[in-house]
Known about the structure:
Pathway: Cofactor biosynthesis; adenosylcobalamin biosynthesis; Porphyrin-containing compound metabolism; siroheme biosynthesis; precorrin-2 from uroporphyrinogen III: step 1/1. By secondary structure, this protein is of the alpha/beta class. It has nine helices and ten strands. The chain is elongated, with a radius of gyration of 20 Å. Bound molecules: S-adenosyl-L-homocysteine.
Amino acid sequence: MMTNHSFADLGFVSLVGAGPGDPELLTVKALRVIQQAQVVVYDRLVSQAILDLAPTDAERIYVGKQLDFHCVPQSQINQILVDKAQQGKRVVRLKGGDSFIFGRGGEELEVLAQHQIRYEVVPGITAAAGATAYAGIPLTHRDYAQSVQFITGHLQKNGAPINWHCLAQSNQTLVFYMGLKQSGHITDNLLQAGVSGDMPCAVIERGTTARQRVLTGCLLQLPHLAQQAESPALIVVGQVAELHQKLHWFQP
Length: 252
Ligand code: SAH
């Protein structure tokens, strides 16, 4: 007798970006797949309101990391995804912001691909887009910024060293993720590379949430601003940061 395997038996992973905080910034597609999840594997930056959208009987697995303390090693997260998918489950891998922006989404997909597990990617609003929008800071602006760069503040880890001269080019916006602890280092390097100490900057803490705070000043003041802020926070350096005074609209 022939056995009929439907796709549903095979297991599937949706790699879903949950956006920066405000649950209403989920995409319609993200909402649908979360509502259909059997297993949700989630990170620290995913809000409770978004987790609550999953079916009550969905298994919820927290694999959050904290800055200096990796709760669950990446290899173990990968294994959980593989195991659950191989058990035939509809797995949602839920990450803050967008999974492909400083989210290790690529690493997890490589493992799924290796195990021939089917997957899809649902993009999310990355913090740089969401938090600046809610802070009234346009990332580009015809008068002030023709380009934007997203940079990880975990500068010492992996990869080639940052080319600060490239970052210091005029008319661009710099957005540092995970940069609070490195703010002194970032400031020194940008000044050395020729960015003016007067360059406007902003620190956006818990962007898009009811606890959003925006601290603004100039580059010379950045370490001081960063000291007053708590994670998760973004550092924005560039002329556009000044527009916050004029364009802010969000009342947390
Ligand atoms: N994949 C995520 C980024 C993960 S790295 C994304 O696309 O947004 C974690 C860093 O993102 C934090 O240290 C912080 O710099 C930034 N971040 C995430 N959510 C944020 C928020 N609501 N407000 C400000 N920064 C945020």
